[in-house]
Amino acid sequence: xxxxxxxxxxPAPPLAGSAPxxxxxRRVTVRGVVQGVGFRPYVYALAGELGLCGQVTNTxxxxxxxxxxxxxxxxxxxxxxxxxxxxxxxxQSVDHLAVPPQGDTAFHIVASRQDGPxxxxxxxxxxxxDACLAELRDPADRRYRHPFxxxxxxxxxxxxxxxxxxxxxxxxxxxxxMCPRCEREYTDPADRRFHAQPVACHDCGPRLRLLLGxxxxxxxxxxxEPVARARQLLAEGAILxxxxxxxxxxxxxxxxxxxVRTLRRRKARGDKPFAVMAAGAHDVEPLVHLDAVxxxxxxxxxxxxxxxxxRAGAGGAGGAGTGPAVLAPSVAxxxxxxxxxxxxxxxxxxxxxxxGDPPGPRLLVMTSGNLGGEPIxxxxxxxxxxxxxxxxxxLAHDRPIHVPCDDSVVRVVDGQELPxxxxxxxxxxxxxxxxxxxxxxxxxxxxxxxFCLGEGRQAWLSAHVGDMDDLATLxxxxxxxxxxxxxTGVTPQVVAADRHPGYRSGRLAERMHGPRLxxxxxxxxxVAAVMADNGHDGRSPVIGIAxxxxxxxxxxxxxxxxxxxxxxxxxxxxAHLRYTPLPGGDAAVRHPYRMALAHLRAxxxxxxxxxxxxxxxxxxxxxxxxxxxxxxLHCVPTSSMGRLFDAVSSLVGLCHHATYEAQAAVELEAAAxxxxxxxxxxxxxxxxxxxxxxxAGEPAPLLLDPAPVLAAVVADLAAGVAPDRIAAAFHxxxxxxxxxxxxxxxxxxxxxxxxxxxxxxxxxxxxxxxCRGLRExxxxxxxxxxxxxxxxxxxxxxxxxAARAAHPADRTLQPEA
Length: 817
Fold this sequence. Notes:
The chain has 817 residues and is α/β, with parallel strands linked by helices. The protein is 29% helix and 23% strand. It is globular and about 95 Å long. It starts with 22 loop residues before the first strand and ends with a strand.
């Protein structure tokens, strides 16, 4: 739709006898997030203020304006256009050039053009702004309680875009023609909704509906207004599927222990923590510690789930009402943190209650609408079928979701944001690259999958896709890849995947892209990701610490406790955790006591029946496990630091059966976080180092041997030392080992920069301790800032390793195959 509002007045003619004012015309191209953020209305207003004529339009490249008038005014326009942009805009570049004057007498917003390359950036979805929220709460406003209220400064963007340029016809709002009142706002330059593509109201916008039922079927609920009835059902203990921006959530009252347990059972969630949504930060302050950085993240426009450290003893059971919010024990069992987010859509605000509404739940569990590992449900027909066994009803609407987009998850470490899952609010905004890359696709890993497109000095990471272990996730991956290619204009010439031969992501890439595929070692990709995340140009190598659960090693072993000397072109394995058998593969991951017993055996320590891990292993299984280890049957060697955390967690009696990824490590961190003593009070655990043995002139990797640590843990358990003290001492020992090995490598190599990556570094205690010690020793430390340290950031590292546009001629490190 094209707005032709009243034009600003043309410049006044010169006075009689005075020299004519020279007229110039400049074409100005603005690139970045400049569509869907009110940029054309802003340009219109700026041109009017300066008395300029001309036009502005959206193109595939960005926003293009032509302004005509006195040279001083056109120069001021070019100077100001980038620095005074609307709040949601991100201006990456402003280019302008002189063009012949056309004699225009007005300024117009003209229809979008689709010619030329697609290089504009789509804005992420953003939380409801204060102005819209005020209207939502105002009984005198025509959008009072409108569940889809939005304006130029907030609301859905990425999840509703079907094509570029960004116009209403290219969004899922195309099916909702504007009523006359909305159209007047849309075409009024003085209105906040001038050219706001998702604009709607009660008369012309999407409609809510509440359906009740379950596995046996569903029917529309007509007993009241949908939101009010949904709040009542939640207060009564129901579980509802609630359609959001990027997919369905499963919601229940977070204070109702029965409801939370039922949701956990239906979703087959195990003990994995749920996130909660609160109406405001004040509702969770009695439950968690909240500093200024965390508060800013909670209340900002992106509205991620923020992992907040729980207060000792906070929680308990309770119900709806006006008193302090309470939390059911089953929301986040065994976890030191509580995932909290605030409402980011008008529907969320209505669901949690506006001032004057009847009492309802103060905190809602809001978890992805899916079964564990599957992609989030977005289509209404899918929701009615796939979510029927999980819910008692659906609070849905008829605005389609074009792109799935899960909630982002972050935590704060040492005052800095650390992404744990990068999705809604960030996607599809690009990550700047320190090195140019060819047009390329990196498919990531099989867990926490995100993929990445890149070209030049920009990389576009997808929203969170999920675990690549079923057809639904593979289908979602293919759909998301096509959509991201469409809106970025990237046609991959190079495709990167993990070296693991069994990864479904790699097999999918091989089927789809064949000869363009390049394989990248898992831990090299982790190190490259954190280098790129910090703008490291790769001209000098780093000491890369890559600690995670699993990754295919060059020698056929399962790597995961790696110290690499690396740049983008290659790596050398400088040190690693001593190999330990991984008995039964995934069985050792699901049952950490198996890993504990394997580590004890490797350390030469007996399986004392009094040890918690020994007692947790059934006697018959223990006998089989002993034979398995003796004969080396299904016992691939592993250097995984994640599995060592699992082993210690079981050894001290915290977690013997893992129902979600990294549960044992999460509970070990929680125990360490609960230790209230000083560092000086901790037992002095320390890893042993096997001296390097030279082979063919090249030093063999240093071995970090945990045997002395394990022996000390066993001795402390026998002496009655509390698990929290042992857990804290173990964290200190790992940080000490990192500090020591980096010191040794600096002596040999002169490298003074350390890069920390891998899922183990989502552990705030460990990340902070490692960083603090390394900086005390004079190292520069790189930690993740824009992408997660876990496999959700893996694709970025794959991209820069495989697709660098220029490589140095002289390599000193092992190149990637």
